[in-house]
C-alpha cells in the first residue's frame, strides 16, 4: 500500500477491483464501511458478486482478464472529459515529458519487439533530452510527442462500445463507475483503489496495476489521504517477506539480484545506480551503493572489506534472461534436473498451477525436506491417490514447525507497519520455528565445511551467521549497526550501536544493515519501535487517522508515500481538511515528509516522486518489460479469438513453460467454452493446509464447490448441490455446484459467455473435501513477475455420475 | 444495568468470525457438514452452534441483493421459553435480572424430548436446540461468564466491521437509532426488529426478507458425528 488500512476511511470514492476485500481482508471493510458511512461511493468490479459486492454501493460484473480494457476506457473517459487534476498532472507527473522519436506503437506492439525472443529492446522507450542531459518538457501538454498526448492517442481506441463489447460490462455500468471515480480528479476529493491477486495473477498482471497508477496520477490521488494504490496483502506476511526478498530476482530492500554480467561490485553499481542531471530530482536510488555495501556487511561481517569488494564475489549470480521462479523451477524438476530441496510453509502440490504436473515433478526428487504445521498435499505427495508409494523414490522429511502464534517476531502489514508479536504458547512436542531450524541447519553445514574441505567454503564460512536464532537479534541486524565508531549529525555512535536511519548508511563499510528500508526501526534511543503501542497524535494527524507512535512504518515511519504530492509547490495542502503534510513556519508538520527539503517553489525543493530517476509520477513507464503503457491483451486461454483494440491477441511477452503436460486450449476453443476464475475464501487460508485441520473452519466451508449462474446450470442440466466435473485441457476436478444469481452470464461480442469460479483451498489430505482446483489452471505467467494466470482459463463443466474425491 | 446486543446486519460481511468465535469460547465440537450448494453452513442452529450466519440472495430487476443474518437467541425481556419450561422443570431456564440474559441451565437435561420440543415451539424465533447426547437444551447464553468478568461476548469481540455490538441496553438502543438513520439512506425499508421486547436487537435492511433454509436442504439430516477436535492426520494407505 502507498497508504494504510485506517486511511481507507478518508476516501470519497473506493474502487475495489481485482480484490474481494471483505472476504479476503475482512478488516479492510471496517474502514471501507467507515468511508461509506461518511458518504463515499464504494464500487466493486469483479466477475463474481461476493460478500464485498454485498456491502458495496454497487457491483459491476466483468469478464476475468479484461481489466485493462475496463481501465483503459476510464483513462479515455478522464482525458476526454477533462476530469484530470491539471496542476498535479503538470507539476508532478511525467505528462509534460517529450518522448524520443524512436518510440512508437502499432497494432498491439510497441517499438523494439523481437518476435524470435518474444521480448522488447526497450531502448526506444526513452525521453528526449536537452544539451545538459535534462528531459525536455512541455508544461502546456500540447506537444504532439509529449507523454500526455501519446497517452491520449493510445487510449483513444478504448471507446465505451469497444470496452463494453470485450469486458461484458454494459455501457451504463461503465459510465456509472467512470463518472463516480473520475469525480475525484479535484483537489479536495480523493479516491482509493484496492486490489489484490485478482489483478496480479494474469499474464498482464503488472500492467493491470500500471493502468490503475495512471488513473491515480491523472486524478491527483497519489500522496493524498484517502488515495493511493493499495495492494491488500495477506496474513502470510506477504509485505514483510517481499520486503525481505522471498523472490529470486532481488536482494533485500528491492535491489536487483547480481547477474553473471556484473562480476564486481563496480559492475553492479554501474548497472544499477541511476543518474539524473536535474538538481531538483532526489533520484533516491542514487544511494543504492550505500545500501548494498551495508547489506554485504550484514551478510559477511568482518570478511566484508573494501579489499574483498565487501564479499560481493561470494554472492551467487543469475544468468541473464534465466527465470528461476517457481513456474520454471517445477518445470525443471519435472524434467529431472533437480535432485532435492527444501519446501517450507508452502504447499505447491495444491497451490501451483497445473498441479498434476507439479505432483509428478516432486516424484523426481531423490530427497525432499518439508517444514510445516500439518501434513499437506506436498509433505504427503508420495502416497497421493492413484500412486503406489513403493514406486516413488523420494526420501521425504517432515520437520514439525511452530505455528506463528507459537513464536515471537515481526509481521509487516499491508500499510508497511512493522508490528511485533509475541509467542502466545510454546510449540508442542519437538516443533520449532523456521528461524531456529534454518540457523541450526546453517551451523551444521558450517561445521561440516570446517571439518571436510568443500569446493568453495568461503560463502558459507565467511557468512556472519549467528550461533542460535533470536528474533530480537535478527531485528537489530535488520535495522543495522555501526561497525566502527562514527559521528552522524553531531551525535557520536560507537561500534555496535544501532544505526538511527538509512541516511546514516554508508558505502565505506562503516555500517551493516540487512534491509535499508527497515533502518530506523530499532534504535539506540527508542529500542524496538515495532513494539510501540502509543496512540498519541496531533489534531492534524487525528483528522486523517494517522498514528505516528503506533508501531513503526517503513520508510522512516512515513505513513503515506509520496506525500509531497499532496501539497502545491508552495507546500500548501491541496485538501486542507484532510492534509497529510503542510509547510508551516519553515518546517513540515503532519506525516513524515518524503524528504525534508523545503517546498518546490523555494527552488531548494525536490520533485515528489523521489524513487523515480526524474522525480515525476510515471504516466509513461519505461521500466516494465511489456510496454510503457498498459495495453489490453486476452488471457492465454480466452473464449474469444479477436479483440477490438489490435490484431495482437495475447501479451506478446507472456511467460509459459512447455511440455507434454502443459496443454493449452486454443482461443475460442469449443471443447472448453467456459471461463474459470479461482480464488481464496474467508474461512480457509491460502491452500488450506492449515485451516482444513481446524474443525470449526472446515465445518463452515467443508468441501470444494463451483459457483455458476442459473442460466449455465440450466444449459448443462445441473441443479444446486449437484456434484459436477470441471475439466480443462490439463485436468479434471470434482466439485459441488453452487447455482447462484451472483454469477451473471456476460454478453461478449454479441454472444453469451459464462464464467464460473472455484476456491483452491481443498486437497486430498483432508478426506472427502475434494482435491486441488489448480489441476485445471495453466503454467503461464506475467512477463515481469512470472506470477501465474490463476484468474482466467478455459474449462467445461458437466454433471458427475460418480464421485471419487468428494464424500456425500 | 440491563445489557443488549445491537446487530447491524447492514454492516455484516458474513465473515462468520462470530459463528466460529462462539464455538471456540463455548468449546463446542465441529459438525461434520457437507457442501450442499450454499455458503450457509452448518445450515441451521444446532446443539453445537449457538450462532449461525444465515444467507439470503435474490435478483430483482437486474439488481442482486445478498443479505446476512447472524442468528442467535434474542434474550426476550419476557421470555416465552422460560414460561414454557417452568411448567415442566423449575429452574431449567433462568433470566439474569442484572443483564437480561436468558440462560438454559443444566436442569434442562431433566426436560423430556417432548418438553424440549414444547419449549422450542414456544420460542418466536426458533432458537432452542436439544443436544441428543446430553439431553440438554442449548442456545446462546450471552457469554454471561465473559460479561460478568467485564468482557464483551465472544461474537462481539470477533466482529471486524461493527455489525456486532454489545453494551448497556439504553446505549445500544440509541446506537440502533443512529445506525438506522444511516442505513435508511441506502435501504429505505430498514428497520430495528422487536427493539422493545428483546435484548438482541437486529437492524435489517429489508424486514420482508425470509432467511428460511435454502431450497433442497433437509435440515434434519445434516448432522453427522461431530469431528474430532484433535488435529487429524491423514491415514497412510
Automatic annotation (TrEMBL), chain A:
Localization in the cell: Periplasm
Signal peptide coordinates: none
UniProt cross-references to Pfam families, sorted A to Z: Molybdopterin, Molydop_binding
Any single biological process term in GO: anaerobic respiration
Record domain Molybdopterin dinucleotide-binding: where: 675-793
Cofactor names: [4Fe-4S] cluster; W-bis(molybdopterin guanine dinucleotide)
Alphabetized GO MF terms: 4 iron, 4 sulfur cluster binding; electron transfer activity; formate dehydrogenase (cytochrome-c-553) activity; formate dehydrogenase (NAD+) activity; molybdenum ion binding; molybdopterin cofactor binding
Keyword tags: 4Fe-4S, Calcium, Iron, Iron-sulfur, Metal-binding, Oxidoreductase, Periplasm, Selenocysteine, Signal, Tungsten
SUPFAM superfamilies named in the record: ADC-like, Formate dehydrogenase/DMSO reductase, domains 1-3
Domain Molybdopterin oxidoreductase: 2-443
InterPro entries assigned: Asp_de-COase-like_dom_sf (IPR009010), Formate-DH-alph_fdnG (IPR006443), MoPterin_dinucl-bd_dom (IPR006657), Mopterin_OxRdtase (IPR006656), Mopterin_OxRdtase_prok_CS (IPR006655)
Top-rank taxon: Bacteria
Matches recorded under CDD domains: MopB_CT_Formate-Dh-Na-like
GO cellular component, one term: periplasmic space
Protein family per UniProt: Belongs to the prokaryotic molybdopterin-containing oxidoreductase family.
Name under which the protein is recorded: Formate dehydrogenase alpha subunit
Originating organism: Desulfacinum infernum DSM 9756
Classification lineage: Bacteria, Pseudomonadati, Thermodesulfobacteriota, Syntrophobacteria, Syntrophobacterales
Automatic annotation (TrEMBL), chain B:
Originating species: Desulfacinum infernum DSM 9756
Location(s) in or outside the cell: Cell envelope
Keyword 4Fe-4S: yes
First-listed, main subcellular location of the protein, grouped into a coarse class: other
PROSITE patterns on file: 4FE4S_FER_2 (PS51379)
Lineage summary: Bacteria, Pseudomonadati, Thermodesulfobacteriota, Syntrophobacteria, Syntrophobacterales
All residue ranges annotated as the 4Fe-4S ferredoxin-type domain in the record: 3-33
Protein name, UniProt field: Formate dehydrogenase iron-sulfur subunit
InterPro entries xref list: 4Fe4S_Fe-S-bd, FDH_Electron_Transfer_Unit
